[in-house]
Design brief:
The protein is mainly α and about 200 residues long. It has nine helices and four strands, in the order H-H-E-E-H-E-H-H-H-H-H-H-E. It has one domain: Trigger factor, domain 2, CATH 1.10.3120. Helix content is about 65%, strand content about 5%. It has a two-stranded antiparallel ribbon with strand order 1-3. The protein has a two-stranded parallel sheet with strand order 2-4. Helix 4 packs across helix 5 (about 110-120), helix 4 (about 85-105) crosses helix 6 (about 120-145) and helix 7 crosses helix 9 (about 180-200).
């Protein structure tokens, strides 16, 4: 039974963290969860966290990753990490810890036992959170460098497709997604558009 909960925890944790990873565009009065609003961060501040290396014209080996995962991984390896945005790191630590605590409760385990079961430690959680935080920075730097935006036509034409994806992936109702998740959907569209640009402008092997 514990293994069932752990597998479910791992899957849902990945889904939830993926959902939050680029959900930074919020009104200031709504941004109470501790995440940084990357759109509101100046380019100068972003460049204090990371400096982009090459991100186009690269030869990228896919391996077991998807094309998008492989190209972002290559871009991060080429970037110079200067410092981690501590607010964003702490946000992701809180998200990861909350999920492990929830699933520990569901599995009738202690939090410490859950960490042992999945091979996680406080240090590994911090490292994972740092990687996620710097990924946010690198994504925003690339997006700004190429001035990648969504047109109103793109938002309108793709909206229903993304609604159905959110319904399928996360189990929400269609009505809930349309009424409460539009900004997350637009962020997903923008991330996908940026990723597609990178796939087109790099050699993927």
């Amino acid at each position: 039974m514990k293994n069932i909960y752990i597998r479910a925890a791992a899957l849902l944790l990945c889904l939830i963290l993926a959902l939050f990873a680029f959900s930074c565009k919020k009104d200031e009065d709504e941004n109470t969860d501790g995440a940084m609003d990357m759109r509101a961060v100046s380019s100068q501040e972003l460049e204090g966290y990371a400096a982009l290396g090459g991100y186009t014209g690269l030869s990228v080996t896919v391996g077991t990753d998807s094309k998008g995962e492989a190209v972002w991984k290559e871009i991060r390896e080429n970037a110079k990490i200067i410092a981690y945005p501590e607010q964003q790191v702490n946000y992701y630590i809180a998200q990861i810890e909350a999920q492990y605590k929830y699933y520990a409760e569901q599995a009738d385990m202690s939090y410490a036992d859950m960490l042992k079961e999945v091979g996680a430690t406080e240090e590994s959680i911090r490292v994972e959170a740092q990687e996620m935080a710097i990924d946010d920075v690198i994504y925003e730097l690339v997006r700004r460098a190429e001035n990648i935006m969504l047109s109103e036509d793109e938002k309108e034409s793709l909206f229903d497709k993304y609604v159905q994806k959110y319904v399928s992936d996360y189990g929400y109702t269609e009505q809930y997604v349309k009424e409460n998740m539009s900004e997350l959907i637009y962020e997903s569209m923008l991330y996908d558009k940026t990723t597609e640009y990178l796939i087109k402008n790099n050699e993927i092997n």
